[in-house]
Amino acid sequence: MNLPETLQKCRERTADKLAQLITGLTDAGAPTIVSARACVYATGSLGRGEMSERSDLDIFILRDRNVASPLTNLDEICLKARLVEVARQQKYEDFSGDGKYLKAHDVKEDLIGKLGTSEDDSTNVFTARMLLLLESRPILGADIYKQAIDLVVSLYWRDYAQNSTNFLPLFLINDILRFWKTLCLNYEERTGAEKHTKPGKRRLHNYKLKHSRLLTCYSGIIYLQAILCRDGGTVSPKAVMDMVSRTPTERLEDVAGWQPSMEPAVQKIMDGYAKFLQICDANKPDLEESFSDPGFKQARFTEAKHFGDDVFHLLHLLTTGTELLRYLVI
Predict the structure, then answer these.
(1) Taking Cα atoms as reference points, which of 29, 99, 119, 32 lies closest to residue 59?
(2) What's the predicted TM-score (pTM) here?
(3) Which of 87, 156, 292, 315 has the fewest Cβ atoms surrounding its Cβ within 10 A?
(4) Model confidence pLDDT, tens digit, residues 210-257
(5) What does the pLDDT read at residue 9?
(6) Domains of the chain, each with CATH number or no CATH
């Protein structure tokens, strides 16, 4: 399979920007605050390995309260201050919602304890958990980051020991599908007022939803189905940990490597995604203005539809005739 040049350059740029961010935070003393009691991880374009020169930062903080000296509220404030300071020094846009989502979640009380509760989505924990598994990479506190992933995977795989030869990861897949639907609902709720006042901005959000957000979710499902095919109808905790360590596009590369017959379908998705990255590599005000033009908007939405069709086609190729298919359509 040929990796599109655009995507390769984005991966290289992401590695450089991640290194710069870690250096900046280290110089600002953030690792001392984090110590062995918290972690900071990135999602968004940094987590997906596809940063442009104008990408913003999407950051989550997790803390472990079950240590001798847990992260205090004042420690959290100091850590946030370092994150804001370094992000501004490195010319990133300020964190979205005036820092509304830049808050620390507890690994056990929130990520584990709130799963399935009414608070899961309202407190942004559901998003933090899903993005941790689907598009994240650690910035600080790698040990806590790994511990959090281990605990979450153990929760989703809690019935594996009794079903190790035929384990279907339906618990996780159901949550991935729920997350995709939540993203779609959030788009409608958060951008509804912009339909007439800022149509270009709303259309750009829609375009990104139908590319990067869609691929984040469905690359996970595609990868899990490919593992089921590869490993004789089961998915081990080790296999899903491998999925977590891969970006959405890297997962597709793995699938093409495991099943060469899928390579043409994967290549088509990768080429379409590279086109999306090229379009988004522009100043946000200019891009929003472009999406205000009906002709430009129609061309991009047509591309988005074809991209969605290509992702569905690959999923269809992998799941037709399998046990997992019934759980995806019911």
Answers:
(1) 99
(2) 0.94
(3) 292
(4) 999 999 999 999 999 999 999 999 999 999 999 999 999 999 999 999
(5) 96
(6) 1-156 (3.30.460.10), 159-330 (no CATH)
